[in-house]
């Protein structure tokens, strides 16, 4: 086969000295009719960051420089500058282009795969409109390149790279940003084809189908109206489904109810089959007045508050006090109608039939549960913002089955379920009112402890609960004996528990499950009389579809994502969320099992900031440490997971500050930190020199140290320790080291903070080494204009740093995607003691 003429690569070769650069020399590749055409996107940090988009055609790689990179959002028009063709061999190039060479900088392979042109690609290039499919590890679906300049108008033609509208992979930028979600090399971190990981367009379920024009009842079966009906139940899900068409409804904060209409009479049944007709007589009469004929109706009863939001406590009060006139019945399914069994009919058609049945008949008390025309993520976010319980997803083609099914899914704003009451305590100074409820659930024939709840009821309700529980009181707990082994219930006993027969069921909202099977941040929502105690088990979320690496989902709904938190740059809350999600793998080792203080900025970083050291708001994944770790104080906080990191950010946390010790050895620090804080008039060069001097002193004392930027004005020098000495000893060492620096170089350093003594000098802050003192964690953003980041670096990098805020949340993750070895890799393996260093320092 004849080689292509080499002229197309002449410009490529002319710009490069192949004795200096490791880039491949340009030679056209042989064409092959069997081989699929390749594409590659190289992330190139040269004078500025950009993305090189390359498509193989006729033995070369057609190339465009895309400054901001591709987007799955069809509304984003990414500028693409047509540059010289590159050789096909360039598809494997990763590495550094040396200073002084064309394109000097670092290159990684951000994505690669194959592409398929739509129509004749050569004709498309000639006309300035090229449409194609991509099959990559990050990009997929239908794309388009459109020339927007006249040929020859500029030195390099200007094009736009667009995601085609209507494509299955198209997604709004507010929902997903592939650039920030997947910033790394696919050579270093291969992902596999995205079409295989996330078929049909990724983790978001497809929007709900358009309402059917009329119900398709071809699968209806003639049958007599049954006397009883088992309802279909939803399965708790951790994330939206990835395939199929789903209808989305609000998850009502109420009681499930089924209505049987026959011979002009209506009877009402709970999900357990209990007849509540007499209990809800006004509602039964309201349904009878609609004259619906023979049918079974499925729905949920609620009581709405002044904002039109379901209120579970109001519903409970309405039922218990026979004030049922405020109850609203939302209908969402029609399993039977007339002489037909509709359970095999697809859900979308059953709902269409229900709409027809209710047409012109709905009232303020009898309503149709509308579907919500949006994506599950958007609806869940809106529902949580409105204070709703969550959303229900139902597969549009699913039949009605009388059991729990994965074709009906529930996504919750917070964890919530029923528990059996196994005991209680009296309220302090009010012995006829409940102080706390001891909770349990059934598991494999045992009654297990779930912890306790001590809030959520008013005084009158607390007295009523006390009266109900006293009537059930017994001498011995009904819990499984294993629940009293050390480390479980026995640790939490206060000595005044009163045990009851396990018959009362309550609903409780809570933040999370602890590793030992108890609930945290619990709040009582009401008594459930529609569910028997023996049916109460621990509710487990169905596993979420496996997400793409580095694009993990936490289930944390982000409210007000576009709120600006840094007016100086326009950075938004969602930018901070995406930053912390992207650096979680690096940051979490610096947080796990270490007490953390949070700096929150509810009005943005230009507003009032405040520190939080203890639980104040529900943040799933932010855990309470054992209160015994710091006697006399509320439990300290720790963050061990991505969920905790993101839920804290959702609650407007900007900075994460950690102790110098872990929970395991709270009084024995495993590090000592020297915070180099420049006074007025100190130059950055002087601060760099100070860090080197501190490094030299520590080396002379036999100690290895590591460096990180503070994210603000200064630098942090960190010395890992084997946790043996107590806080006072470690603080005394750090003070002695700082005083030594101040005595040796008084023109550079000062050992006391504050006042005029710091002008032109550097205070090395040793006070951060006291018990309970904290320092901004590695990778933490800072609540300062520009939002700098505390970044671990190698000592060899110190000379190249421009400031303590050299990286920001806009640039830090991109830097990490280009960095090679972790400069702190040896930090975690270093074992060293201060004993010898203290002796040496004492001799000076």
TrEMBL record:
Domain spans labelled ATP-dependent DNA ligase family profile: 320-454
NCBIfam families: LigD_PE_dom, ligD_pol, NHEJ_ligase_lig, NHEJ_ligase_prk, PRK05972.1
Any one GO MF annotation of this record: DNA ligase (ATP) activity
Source lineage: Bacteria, Pseudomonadati, Pseudomonadota, Betaproteobacteria, Burkholderiales
Region feature (Disordered): 1-33
Comp. bias (Basic and acidic residues): 1-28
Matches recorded under Pfam families: DNA_ligase_A_C (PF04679), DNA_ligase_A_M (PF01068), LigD_N (PF13298), LigD_Prim-Pol (PF21686)
Requisite cofactors: Mn(2+)
Entry protein name: DNA ligase (ATP)
Keywords: ATP-binding, DNA damage, DNA recombination, DNA repair, DNA-binding, DNA-directed DNA polymerase, Exonuclease, Hydrolase, Ligase, Manganese, Metal-binding, Multifunctional enzyme, Nuclease, Nucleotide-binding, Nucleotidyltransferase, Transferase
Catalytic activity, reaction form: ATP + (deoxyribonucleotide)n-3'-hydroxyl + 5'-phospho-(deoxyribonucleotide)m = (deoxyribonucleotide)n+m + AMP + diphosphate
EC number: 6.5.1.1
């Amino acid at each position: 086969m004849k080689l292509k003429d080499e002229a197309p690569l002449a410009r490529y070769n002319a710009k490069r000295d192949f004795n200096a650069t490791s880039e491949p020399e340009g030679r056209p590749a042989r064409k092959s009719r069997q081989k699929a055409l390749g594409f590659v996107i190289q992330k190139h940090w040269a004078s500025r960051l950009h993305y090189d988009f390359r498509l193989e055609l006729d033995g070369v790689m057609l190339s465009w420089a895309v400054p901001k990179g591709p987007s799955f959002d069809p509304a984003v028009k990414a500028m693409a500058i047509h540059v010289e063709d590159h050789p096909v061999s360039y598809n494997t190039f990763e590495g550094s282009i040396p200073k002084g060479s064309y394109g000097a900088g670092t290159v990684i392979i951000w994505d690669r795969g194959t592409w398929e042109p739509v129509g004749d690609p050569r004709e498309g290039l000639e006309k300035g409109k090229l449409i194609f499919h991509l099959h990559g590890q990050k990009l997929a679906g239908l794309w388009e390149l459109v020339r927007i300049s006249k040929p020859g108008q500029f030195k390099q033609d200007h094009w736009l790279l667009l995601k085609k509208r209507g494509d299955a992979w198209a997604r709004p930028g507010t929902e997903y940003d592939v650039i920030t979600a997947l910033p790394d090399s696919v050579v270093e971190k291969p992902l596999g084809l995205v079409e295989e990981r996330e078929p049909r367009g990724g983790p978001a379920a497809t929007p709900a189908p358009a309402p059917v024009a009329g119900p398709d009842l071809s699968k209806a079966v003639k049958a007599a109206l049954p006397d009883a009906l088992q309802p279909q139940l939803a399965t708790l899900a951790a994330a939206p489904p990835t395939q199929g068409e789903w209808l989305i409804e609000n998850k009502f904060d109420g009681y499930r109810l089924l209505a049987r209409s026959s011979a002009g009479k209506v009877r009402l049944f709970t999900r357990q089959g209990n007849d509540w007709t007499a209990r809800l007589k006004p509602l039964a009469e309201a349904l009878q007045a609609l004259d619906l004929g023979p049918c079974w109706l499925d729905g949920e009863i609620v009581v709405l508050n002044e904002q039109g939001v379901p209120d579970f406590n109001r519903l409970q009060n309405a039922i218990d006090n026979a004030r049922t006139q405020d109850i609203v019945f939302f209908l969402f399914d029609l399993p039977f109608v007339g002489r037909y069994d509709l359970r095999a009919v697809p859900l979308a058609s059953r709902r269409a039939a229900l709409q027809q049945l209710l047409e012109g008949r709905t009232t303020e008390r009898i309503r149709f549960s509308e579907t919500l025309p949006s994506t599950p993520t958007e609806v869940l976010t809106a529902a949580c913002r409105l204070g709703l319980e969550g959303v229900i997803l139902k597969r549009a083609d699913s039949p009605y089955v009388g059991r729990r099914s994965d074709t009906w899914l529930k996504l919750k704003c917070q964890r919530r379920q029923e528990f059996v009451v196994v005991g209680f305590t009296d309220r302090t100074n009010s012995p006829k009112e409940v102080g706390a409820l001891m909770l349990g659930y059934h598991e494999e024939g045992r009654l297990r402890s779930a912890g306790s709840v001590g809030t959520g009821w008013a005084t009158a309700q607390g007295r009523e609960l006390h009266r109900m529980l006293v009537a059930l009181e017994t001498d011995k707990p009904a819990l499984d004996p294993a629940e009293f082994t050390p480390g479980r219930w026995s640790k939490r006993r206060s000595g005044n528990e009163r045990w009851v027969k396990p018959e009362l069921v309550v609903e409780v909202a809570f933040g999370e499950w602890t590793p030992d099977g108890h609930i945290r941040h619990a709040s009582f929502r009401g008594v459930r009389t529609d569910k028997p105690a023996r049916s109460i088990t621990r509710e487990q979320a169905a596993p979420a579809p496996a997400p793409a690496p580095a694009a993990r989902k936490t289930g944390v709904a982000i409210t007000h994502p576009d709120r600006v938190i840094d007016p100086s740059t326009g950075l938004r809350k969602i930018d901070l969320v995406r930053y912390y999600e992207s650096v979680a793998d690096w940051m979490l080792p610096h947080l796990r099992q270490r007490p953390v203080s949070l700096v929150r900025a509810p009005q943005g970083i230009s507003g009032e900031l405040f520190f939080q050291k203890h639980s104040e708001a529900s943040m799933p994944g932010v855990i309470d440490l054992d209160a015994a770790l710091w006697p006399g104080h509320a439990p300290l906080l720790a963050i061990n997971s991505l969920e905790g990191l993101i839920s804290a950010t959702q609650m407007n946390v900007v900075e994460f500050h950690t102790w110098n010790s872990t929970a395991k050895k709270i009084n024995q620090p495993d590090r000592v930190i020297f915070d180099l804080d420049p006074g007025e008039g100190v130059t950055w060069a002087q601060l760099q020199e100070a860090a080197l001097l501190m490094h030299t002193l520590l080396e002379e004392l036999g100690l290895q140290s590591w460096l990180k930027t503070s994210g603000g004005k200064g630098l942090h020098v960190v010395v890992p320790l084997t946790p043996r000495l107590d806080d006072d000893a470690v603080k005394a060492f750090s003070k002695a080291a700082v005083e030594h620096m101040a005595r040796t170089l008084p023109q550079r350093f000062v050992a006391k903070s504050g006042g005029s003594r710091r002008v032109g000098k550097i205070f090395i802050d040793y006070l951060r080494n006291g018990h309970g003192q904290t320092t901004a964690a590695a990778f933490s953003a800072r609540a300062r204009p520009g939002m700098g980041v505390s970044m671990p670096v190698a000592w060899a990098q110190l000379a190249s740093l421009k400031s303590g805020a050299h990286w920001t949340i806009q640039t830090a993750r991109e830097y990490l995607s280009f960095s090679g070895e972790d400069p702190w890799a040896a930090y975690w393996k270093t074992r060293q003691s201060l004993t010898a260093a203290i002796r040496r320092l004492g001799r000076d």
